[in-house]
Amino acid sequence: MTSVLILGGTGTTGSRAISFGEAVGLIGSATGSAIRHVDIDPEAYVERQVAHGVPPGVARVLAGVLGAIRDGSGASIADGVPRALGRPPRRFEDFVAEAAAAGRWSPRSRR
């Protein structure tokens, strides 16, 4: 089974809203990795994406979406998971622990 995290206005959320920084902190703790979230200027983000081959329009849209999420858009909790799956949503902490135990973020899983 594949776990999917859907962000935004779909009406499908986890059991609570978390920030990018909190999500990264939970993943770092579960994996024993020293990782952090760095919030950069949206234009700098677009420039970096374009430098890596992302079309400028796509990079701007993604920067807008990520900025809106960072600013709290879609932070409300919705009932899409119980309606769609017939069960409560999983806690992000539980998803992270399971994924880390399965090696999902290990260097070998990226091959």
Please explain how this structure is put together.
- The chain has 111 residues and is mostly helical.
- The protein has one domain.
- 48% of the residues lie in helices and 0% in strands.
- It contains 5 helices and no strands.
- It has helices at residues 20-31, 42-51, 56-70, 80-85, 92-101.
- α1 (20-31) runs parallel beside α5 and α2 runs antiparallel to α3 (56-70).
Distance between the termini: 20 Å
| Helix-strand string | HHHHH
User: DSSP helix count?
Assistant: 5
* β-strand amount: under 5%
Number of strands: 0
Overall pLDDT confidence: 84
Globally, the shape reads: globular
Count of all domains: 1
Biggest sheet character: none
Oligomer: single chain
The secondary-structure class comes to mainly alpha
Helix fraction, binned, reads: 40-55%
Report the uncertain regions: 1-10
Radius of gyration: 16 Å
Brief overview:
This protein is mostly helical and 111 residues long. The chain is built from 5 helices and no strands. The protein has one domain (20-103).
